[in-house]
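so my prof wants the structure for this chain in the C-alpha cells format not the other one, which i didnt know existed until like an hour ago. anyway here's the sequence
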Amino acid sequence: MIARLADQSWPDLAGRRPLVVLPLGSCEQHGPHLPLDTDLAVAQDVTERAAALLAEDISLLVAPGQPYGASGEHEGFPGTVSIGHEALSLLIVEIGRSMLRWAGRLLVVNGHGGNLPSMAGAVAKLRSEGRDTAWWPCLPAGSDLHAGHAETSMMLALRAGAVHAERAAAGPCEPIEQLLDRLTAESVRGVSEYGVLGDPAGASAELGEQLLAGMSARLAADIRAWRVSEQGRLGCRLSAPGPATAGVRA
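here's what i got, hopefully its the right format
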C-alpha cells in the first residue's frame, strides 16, 4: 500500500522521520498527440510503483507532485507554463528546508530534463546545509528525446484515452549532441514544427509498461542503497547526465 503525504495527519508523522519522495514534472507541450502533464504523469507513476515495492521495508511518503517546472524551451507552443529556473530552484530549496524539519530525507524524482540545472543546484544547496536530499531522473532505457516512442508508449500504458495517436508526427531524430546548439538558439519550436524530438511510430502500451516497470525497479533499488553523488544524484554508481543531455528529454 502506498503512503501519501497528503493523506496523513500530524500525529501520524510524529517521531517517524520518513523519506519523502517528491515527483517533479512540467506543464508543457508534448507534440500534438500527448497531454501537457506527461512528465508529471511519468514521474508520479514511477514514484508510486517504487513506493509500493518498498512499502514493507522503508518509511516512505509520496508527496503531492509539483506540476510546474522550467520549460522555457517549449514556450513557443500553447499550453506550456514555465516558472523558470530561479523560481523552481527557490521552490525546491524552500520545500526541502521546511519538509526536513520533520522528515529524515527528501528525494526529488524528476520527469522533465529541462528542470535539471535548477533542481540539481537546489539539491546541492540543501546538501551543503546538511540536509539529506537527493534527486533521481526518469530516464527510460533506449528513450528518444521528447514526445517520441518512449513517452508515447508510457502514456499509452498510463492514460491511453489522453493520447491522440491520429495526430502523432515524427520530429528530428538526431542525437542530442547534434541538436543542442540549435535548441539553445531557437528553442524547440525552431527545431521541430510539431514539438516532437524523435518518432512516436511503433509506440505501444506494452512497451510503455516495460519502461515504467524498469524505471520503478531501478528507483526502488537506488532508494534501498541510498548512494548519493557529489552532485546529489541518487544511484551514484551510474554516471550523472552531462550538460549535453541535461535539459532536453521529457
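also thought this was worth mentioning. The CA atoms of residues 183 and 191 lie 6 Å apart.
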